[in-house]
Each structure stands twice: as C-alpha cells, then as structure tokens.
Amino acid sequence: xxxxxxxxxxxxxxxxxxxxxxxxxxxxxxxxxxxxxxxxxxxxxxxxxxxxxxxxxxxxxxxxxxxxxxxxxxxxxxxxxxxxxxxxxxxxxxxxxxxxxxxxxxxxxxxxxxxxxxxxxxxxxxxxxxxxxxxxxxxxxxxxxxxxxxxxxxxxxxxxxxxxxxxxxxxxxxxxxxxxxxxxxxxxxxxxxxxxxxxxxxxxxxxxxxxxxxxxxxxxxxxxxxxxxxxxxxxxxxxxxxxxxxxxxxxxxxxxxxxxxxxxxxxxxxxxxxxxxx
Length: 278
Fold this sequence. Notes:
- The two termini are about 25 Å apart.
- The strands form two sheets. Strands 5-4-3-6-7 form a five-stranded mixed beta sheet. It has a two-stranded antiparallel sheet with strand order 1-2.
- The chain is an alpha+beta fold.
- A hairpin with a 2-residue loop joins strand 4 and strand 5.
- It has helices at about 5-25, 40-60, 85-105, 120-145, 150-170, 195-205, 240-250, 265-275, and strands spanning about 35, 35-40, 185-190, 215-220, 225-230, 235-240, 260-265.
- The radius of gyration is 19 Å and the shape is globular.
C-alpha cells in the first residue's frame, strides 16, 4: 500500500467528518467521558476536532508562513451553547467543508507552515485525515458505535505515526523516544486482512511471509527505524488492520479478543509508552 494522495486524504476527511457527525446526532451523551481520552467529554472531543479542522483550513487558505493563534481562526471554539447536538452538528459539518474546500483549492504543493517542517498543503491533508480517523475512533468507542477504517487509510495512519516518531527522534532531544535506544529488538505489526493475505484468506490458499502485510520496527542503540515487510520479530502484534491501528494508537488494549501478541510483550509496551507524538 502506497502513501495516500492529496485527493484521497480529502475524501477521507469528508468521510470521517460525516461519520463523526453521526456520533453527534446518535443520541450519545455529549457530557460523558471519552474512555480513550479521559480528560475530555464527548463534546469537548468534537469541539477539539472541529476547531483543529478550522485552524488547518485557515492556515492553508491564507498560506500562513507561521503558526496561527486560535484567536485568528473564525468560530474556532464552536457554538456558544453547550449540549446542543443540532448546533454542534451544523458547526462540525461546516468545519469539514472549510478544510476540504481549502485543501482542494490549494492543491498539495501550495506553501504553508507546518510544525514538522514540511511546508505544503499536502502535509495538512494527510495530518487532518489521520487526526479524524483516530478521534473518530475515540468518539465511536465512547458512543458504543462500530468503527472501521479502509485498508489504505489505516496503513497510511500507521506509517504517518512511525514517520512522526522518526521526526521527534531527529529534532527533539528531550523526547521520550530516545528512551527506546538499546540492544536490538524488533516489533512486527501484522495485519491479517490486508493486501494479498486477505485474498489468500478468502481463497483458502497459503502465501509466503514476503507477501504478508507488515511493518517492522527496529529499536537499536542508534535509535528507531522501520520498514515495510514481514519477518520474525521480538514481538508481533497481529490482527485485523483496523484493530492493529487502534492498538498502535493506544485506543484498543493489547488483550482485546481480536488481537494476538506473540513474543516479548514488554517490548511492545515499552514502545507504546515512549513512542510519542513529539
């Protein structure tokens, strides 16, 4: 699976915004705590997402050369009245339209500031797509609704997280990622329902390890690296791709019934503790 295109990211943003809106209008308790982000209520989570979309849209639309303050973003905070699903839904819908419109009008190569030093709109289409995927999972889990991610988007969300960890390793000397340095250990993420393996499962045929979907993470004395591929590892996280993604983002416990952890689980737990968002 290759990196998502700018247009595909815009499609994912639009789709995930609509799915988040279904949570808002589902009758879920907006004041209830979100289990995977316990510092937020469901409404606080929704407002965080909508505000982030508006913030990114304003930066892309204006070609911002530096980070914008929140007070420079129109209607960043959302409806004045809390606990109103109709007003929150309308605001969220407009937030999604603003970011998708700004990104599509700009195109992937338009110059705009980003915190990662990748100064183009393509960075923001990808970042906002995955922001919505992960927080969409938070909201769906809080509301007790099913959640699934298309394989190409789930794979790219994992890849982006790994790239962000590498960025933190290169640029943030105090980041906790540096605590992962040490003797060589490997972590394999193995999706059982992606790529050729999914086709083989449906047809009842076997495929060699080289054809299986995997991401291999290497922890070594000189830091973290990763590659696409499948090989025996110190520890393997195995299951459906959406479940692997959610566990990797700390949204699903490692002992969830759809997941398997094979090998030295403490290595995987060490990663989940110290591989941060910078």
